[in-house]
Each structure stands twice: as structure tokens, then as C-alpha cells.
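FAQ: What does a ligand-bound record look like?

Like this one, built around L-homoserine:
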Amino acid sequence: MRIAIIGYGTVGSSFHRLLEERSHWLKSLYGIVPQVVSVCDSTGCAFNDDGIPYEEAIMKKSKGSVENGNGVSPLKIIGEGMLDVLVECTPSNFSDGEPGRTYIESALKSGIHVITTNKAPLALYMPYLLDQARINGARLFYSGTVGGGTPFLSFAEDTLKGNAVKSFRGILNGTTNFILTRMLEEGISMESALSEAKRLGIAEANPYLDLSGLDAAAKLVIMMNHVLKKRVTLKDVEVSGLLNGVPTPSSGRVIKLIARTSPRPSVSLEEISATDPLNVGFTYNAVEFDVEELGSVYLIGKGAGGMETAASIIRDLVRLRLSLS
Ligand code: HSE
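The answer part, i.e. the structure of the complex:
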């Protein structure tokens, strides 16, 4: 399985390391023999048909560029039959989804399977990209876009298979949940709490995306397409976040940034009971699925982190392999 990793920040490089650590296990359990033949980021692009070891890529990156003198670019690698799987981990750009959108679309149109952790291209164009995958016989996986390592998407798709998920609501952004917890339980300011979230490495490079509710809205869109099969994009979600201030909750209640599918897709601050299972603290994410046969089913876990998201790419790789056999 020839793999290119495009986007070699915390997530892309953590995935590369984890893939090497798990290679024996992936081969013996699933027959996957992965070979990272290309690593690209904003500093350059490397290609080697015999494989690029993690140590080599990370050493080159620490010296300024991952590039290895082969004169390749992401689009050349995608367009010239050098790959089986594109692992796309470029940063989210919510104005037009680029450059991730072009990489994902080009790969799918070339019949290359894609695993992405990039929320923006999906939030803006998910129905179109899923159509492209289907039309071109390629698979598109994106577990790491929602919930970091916590498998919200596959929980709904696999574990609840055969049951009817009617709607869901949840906390989909760890940064704002951390900030709300610190502000409301410990009285610290939004600015100080945001600085802490940045130090923890969970805030977006542009924290406006967290604070405005856009990051949670993007995850809501991805979940609605995946779980409810609704062809929605970011423009269908009513979004507000923390930027207009955080109200003081009444006694026995807490304020949370809740993404919900009904009565209409929205992300906003809501007052919920302190005993509501969605009252999770700090960087945790939590989702309540309203299942026709079961009532409420909850899933709670860490929603961000390089290693957690890298673990989700490994799961997608296994799902890809199983879907091809
Ligand atoms: N900034 C995001 C969050 C990272 O806080 O949830 C994970 O998508």
C-alpha cells in the first residue's frame, strides 16, 4: 500500500511514527503492508518509491524542509499513478477549503483512496466529495475530523448499524469546552483560558475558528452527512460561539457550546442541567445520539490531540483494507 502524507505537522508526523510502530501488527492482523512513499508540507515534497522512514523525514523537517531533491509536488504525485492512498492532513481553511480540497478532489478523480483529517473541505463540499468518491470508485475516510481519537462517526455507523439514529446533540469542540470549564468553575478570564488551551495544543492555529463556533459547526456538518445521510454544508448551520460573551448559568445548571441537529442544525451556547451527561469538563467531547429503538446513547472521549488523531487514521487504514477485501 503506497501512501503519501500531505501535511506533515503534528498529526501527519504522528501518524507516520505510529504507522511504523504498528507495521508488524497491521501486517499480521490485516495483511496491510504500508509504505510511505511521499511526505509533503508547506516546506516541500519528498518522494521515494522504496519508502521514506519517519526518522529521515523528521530530521529533514527539523533542518528546514522535508524535500529530498526529487522535484515532485503533491499534484504530480497524485496525478502520476505513484500512490494507493492519500493521507491528507493540511490545515483547515474555511474560506475555500484549499489546498486540501484540490488534493482530495484530484486524488478521488484519479481513483486514489483518501483519508483526511482536514475539516474544512468536508464542511464546505462534503456531498460533492462523497459523490466524487463514489463516481470514481475510490474511498473517502475522515474519522479524525470529528472527535480526534473518539470514534463518534464509526460508533454511529458501525456499532449502531441497523438502528435508526434520529438526531444528535453534543460538545464537539474541546477548546471552547476547556475555556468554559475554566471560566465558569474557576473564574479565570476567556483570554487566560484560551492561552492555556493553546499551550495544550488543542486550539486551532487560528483560535477564532474555535471561539466563533465554526469548528464545532464543521464537525456537525460532517456528522450529519455521515450519520444522518443529510447533504448539508456549513452554510446550512446557524452558528454562534463565545465571542459575544458567556452568560452566568442559573443554580444547578452549566453553560455549554452545543451542536445540535434539531429543530435545525445549529451551534450555540446553551444552559443545560449540571446532571446532563453532556456536562463533561475540560477538553472532553460528548455526543448524545437519539436512537429510535434505544432512546439516548452517549459517547464521551478526548476530542483532539496529535496522537489521538493519528490513531484515527490507522483505524481508517484498516477500514479501507477491510472494505477492499
Ligand atoms: N480545535 C479543535 C478542538 C481541535 O478544540 O476541538 C480538534 O478538532
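Follow-up question: can I read anything off the structure? Yes, for example: The CA atoms of residues 169 and 295 lie 13 Å apart.
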